[in-house]
Amino acid sequence: MEEGYLKVHTFIADNLAPVAGAKVIIHCECGKMAGELHTDENGMSETLTLPASNDFDNLKRYNVTVSHGGKFREVKVHGVTIFAGITSTLPVQMHPRSSADEMAEEISIPHERGVDLRETKSSKAMALFIAASMFRRW
Based on C-alpha coordinates, what's the Rg of the chain? Predict the structure, then answer.
């Protein structure tokens, strides 16, 4: 089985400030937990090694949940593709929680290629662009 790598970068205010101490949970599409990460003072997680593929008919996709103990809204990103031999960094913009019962932000990445949303500034658009076009390579 080939391997790929995932890092998560959490921030607020269009990358103005990092979010330290965020908890990142990764599940494969089958629902099995694949790993847990935490972000450092720079908002960057450690690197997680995951099963991966470069075969477009058999890509490995994961669901990523980022939370921060009630201070920020939880963000769930569905369909994050990990490619073999590549370290991918998933940028996640966090939003302050305004009430205790506020729902998580849900982001679903389409499986089609060619989506280009570089001009849009929302965290959903960022996740869609990064995953659909290609992850930044660090």
Answer: 14
